[in-house]
Amino acid sequence: MALSGVQTAMILNSLLSTFLLVVFRAIVTPVTFMYFVVSVSEFPELFVLLDFFVVVGEF
Question: Looking at the whole model, is its pTM more than 0.70?
Answer without folding.
Answer: no
